[in-house]
Amino acid sequence: MIKIVILASGSGSNAERITQYFSSHKNVEISYILSNKNDAFVLERAKKHGIKTKVFSNKEMKEQIEFLNLLKTEADFIVLAGFLLKVPEHIIKAFPNKIINIHPALLPNYGGKGMYGMHVHRAVKKNNETETGITIHYVNENYDEGAIIFQAKTALTTEDTPETIANKIHELEQQHFPNVIEQVINK
Ligand code: GRF
After folding, report:
1. What is the pLDDT of residues 43-64, one digit of tens each?
2. Looking at ligand 1, which atom is closest to the CA of residue 17?
């Protein structure tokens, strides 16, 4: 059994899609969905699918051996799906090339601190980009700088707004993220 722990801070549409995708895979289990926000909608989605949840603080993630032990027990792979905290170095070291993140832009563009959610799409719009996309990458010690696993692009027109860009990105994420995770874990 390959066990995946998902870390998410927000709505959790990606976490839910991943959960649904792997529910028919007998050798893959989403063992936990962890969140740093106790009111994150992702927790509702997890409960709906019968996935165990836990809420933790940044301090607990950074300092508690229990948090690392939970990951060691429950995760062969860790998937960040809209997770807004920086993963501490000791966790990255414990899971080399086993932590996967999705970023809603074509890295290395529009990455780094502060570049998340609508901030990304507004910046893309402001620069009149003719395309944007998603990047799925391994996580290393720096925000959005780990080795790229997969990118997919979508064209933009002058009519696009940050909101329509967000929708296009969302579609790409739903379409590709679970498959790419499957490829990585079966490597
Ligand atoms: C996604 O756009 C993802 O790329 C980014 O955060 C967003 C999370 O959305 N890292 P959701 O919580 O999965 O709905």
Report:
1. 999 999 999 999 999 999 999 8
2. 13
Q: Is the pTM of this model over 0.90?
A: yes
pLDDT in tens, 18-47: 999 999 999 999 999 999 999 999 999 999
Q: Which CATH number fits domain 2-185: 1.10.10.10, 3.60.15.10, 3.90.550.10, 3.40.50.170?
A: 3.40.50.170
Which of 99, 96, 94 shows the shortest CA–CA distance to 144? 99
Ligand 1 contact, 146 CB (< 6 A): no
How many residues are recorded in the chain? Answer: 187
Q: Give the tens place of pLDDT for each residue, 101-132.
A: 999 999 999 998 889 999 999 999 999 999 99
Structure tokens at 33: 């969905």
As a whole number, the mean pLDDT across the chain is 96
Contact 134, 96 (CB under 8 A): no
pLDDT given at position 187? 87
Ligand 1 proximity of 173 Cβ (cutoff 6 Å): yes
Which residue, 43, 40, 13, is CA-closest to 178?
13
Q: Is 121 a catalytic residue?
A: no
Residue 68's nearest CA partner among 48, 95, 46 is: 95
Answer whether 40's CB lies under 8 Å from 8's CB.
Answer: yes
SS3 84: coil
